[in-house]
Amino acid sequence: MTTTLDTIAVTSPRAVRSQRPTPAGRALALLRRVPTWLTILFLVVVTAYPLFWMFINSLKSNTDFLNNPSYAFPETWRWDNYATAWQTGNLSTTVMNSIIVTLPSLLLIVVLGTAAGFALEVLVFKGRGAVLLLFLAGIMIPGQMIILPLFNAFFQLGINGSHLPMILIYTAGGLPLTVFMMATYFRAIPREIFEAATIDGASMVRAFFSIGFPMMRNAVLTVAIVQFFLIWNDLLIALVFGGKKSLNTIQVGLLNFSGEYGAINYGPLFAAICITVVGILVLYLFLNQRIMKGLAAGAVKG
């Protein structure tokens, strides 16, 4: 004879009341969150204040900017500084030139860098470690050292005075870092996936475009954003190889706000910077989640 005893838990009102947080407990929990809130507030201020400062100064006249503190509000709100910035900085031309230079460079960097990372990490061949070290050596070469030899080479080829030299330099300059990052990301993909594709009859080119590249979408986007900022914000290469005013990029166009004797028209200058920064901020806000996923993708080996 088997006897089954069921245990019934009885919850008394006193036990329920004892589980509720007391006012002292709630106050202690709030005090524990104060350092976190203060840290977040500090980071928000540090990030947002430069943008606010830049916007406020874009609405000032030169007299207001020089006679009053830079953090003070303008005495006269000069909204016409934005129209002046667009005309003086020739932003319609400089922004288009930046796009013409940036997009082909990004396309070449992403395709060639991803393919090289795939070959160096997935394919097995003798000397791939030495090849990767050669790519890494490119990161250590300062760009200022090769400007004169490159200028002479492009001059002899007769391609100066066009966008092509800048595209070639940006592509070559962006490949070392891209190859290193993409090789790191490919380490997180199990080799069995590519082995299964090979058994099914897929070539390496098919495996790359059908399996490897689609699996690296977030990583590719992260690398593209990093390279985009490096190319878009470059001044030295664009200034040296641009050659003529019609080829000026956005960063070179900002030099137009400096007068003949070094006088700077601060209001329109800050207005031009605001116009260029807003587009980049909007782009980042739309893509930040994918960028975070891409940064985390290469952190762990699968």
Automatic annotation (TrEMBL):
For the biological process aspect of GO, one term held by this record is: transmembrane transport
Show the GO cellular component annotation of the record.
plasma membrane
Q: Where in the cell is it found?
A: Cell membrane
How does this protein sit in the membrane? Answer: Multi-pass membrane protein
- Alphabetically list the UniProt keywords: Cell membrane, Membrane, Transmembrane, Transmembrane helix, Transport
Q: CDD domains, per this entry? A: TM_PBP2
Q: Which residues cross the membrane?
A: 36-56, 99-124, 131-155, 167-186, 219-243, 263-287
Signal peptide residue numbers: none
Name-wise, this protein is Carbohydrate ABC transporter permease
Organism the protein comes from:
Microbacterium hominis
